Amino acid sequence: MRTTILALMGLAIGAAALLALAGGAAAQGPAPSDDDVNAIAKGLYCPVCENIPLDVCPTQACAQWRETIRLKLSEGWSEQQIKDYFVEQYGARVLATPPAKGLNWLVYVLPPVAFLAGAALLFRTLRGWRRAATTSTPAAPLASDDPYVRRLEDELRRQG
Amino acid sequence: MTEAQTNAPGSPGTGRRWGVVLVWLAVLGLLAILGIGLIRSTQGPVGVGSKPDPFTLRTFDGVEYDTAELVGQVVLINFWASWCKPCEQEAAELEQAYQQFKDQGVVFLGVNYVDTEPEARAYLERFGITYPNGPDLGTRISQAFRIRGVPETYILGPDGRMAHVKIGPYTSLDEIVQAIRAAQAP
């Protein structure tokens, strides 16, 4: 009886250890690769190195940021969670695509509006030119009472 | 078509005129926004004599400092980063100055600019810095001071006005001491 209890206890402890190991492995996941890190880093910009995406920025500050991304990924954070963290820490200007808030709306609204306005203007101008061409009146006959015309006709008649 | 007909409300002429006015308003508004942005970007850091807006710094240890509550004291604000090599030149001297002035109504605040916390903490430990330091969350403080890089140091006088601005690292302890003494002087 005692042996059976000990065996059962051993089994239970073994099973618990296995479960803990499996759980730990699932939470930790595989180590994030450089590609995983760069996939997120290319959507971020360090304020110190203007106009250089984080995935190709060679400075120490950017290297530290990439390590932060790697750390967060290894902790199971999603891309959005990591981006939110960077925005909270360093401001929205670190995002390659600015959020559509406040004056940032202009970035999204102005180009299509300007394009449509330009297209409308071009369409109206072309239509106006076409209408002018089709409705243009034929040249008016020369007025017979014009002294120059009369003189020219007389000359032609004389020579002909 | 008569003049009265052209200006009649709802007529195509009136609509076109309003359209032109709206387009011009939009263009002028856009130019104004661009102009304001351009002025801001070329303004340079806040100058001596100006009164910067108060800010709150939450240190790495979780203590909050509100500069609005520090009026009456001299406040030295140093912007730094662990990746900044010139910052290392003045790190030890700043700590020495803090030790010298901490009991004389002078507050030192280190603002950690665009940095990661583990590296920032390691930097503080490496240089034995004990005065309050915290991250510039959202780069709000550095934007308010319009800093151009690190290190930059600003000293507020007891009246809350800017008494001293240093762009780049201090070269000696004496330079820091003189700047603080000048800010303390009535």
Topology record:
The complex is a heterodimer of chains A (160) and B (186).
Chain A: H1 2-28, H2 34-41, H3 60-74, H4 79-90, H5 105-134, H6 147-159
Helix pairs in contact in A: 2-3
Chain B: H1 3-6, H2 12-41, E1 56-58, E2 64-66, E3 74-80, H3 85-101, E4 106-112, H4 117-126, E5 133-135, H5 140-144, E6 152-156, E7 162-167, H6 173-184
Parallel strand pairs in B: 3-4, 4-5
Antiparallel strand pairs in B: 1-2, 3-6, 6-7
Could you describe the 3D structure shown?
The complex is a heterodimer of chains A (160) and B (186). Chain A is mainly α and 160 residues long. Chain A has a domain at 26-97: Helicase, Ruva Protein, domain 3. Chain A has helices at residues 2-28, 34-41, 60-74, 79-90, 105-134, 147-159. The radius of gyration of chain A is 40 Å and the shape is rod-shaped. The termini of chain A are far apart. The N and C termini of chain B lie far apart (77 Å). Chain B has 186 residues and is an alpha/beta fold. Chain B folds into two domains: 3-41; 56-184, Glutaredoxin (3-Layer(aba) Sandwich). Chain B has a five-stranded mixed sheet, with helices on one face. Chain B has a two-stranded antiparallel sheet with strand order 1-2. Chain B is built from six helices and seven strands. Mean pLDDT of chain B is 91; it is low at 1-5. The radius of gyration of chain B is 25 Å and the shape is elongated. In chain B, 42% of the residues lie in helices and 18% in strands. The A-B interface holds A 46-48, 59-61, 64-65, 67-68, 87-91, 93, 103, 106, 110, 117 and B 23, 30, 33, 81-83, 114-116, 119, 135, 137-140, 143, 149.
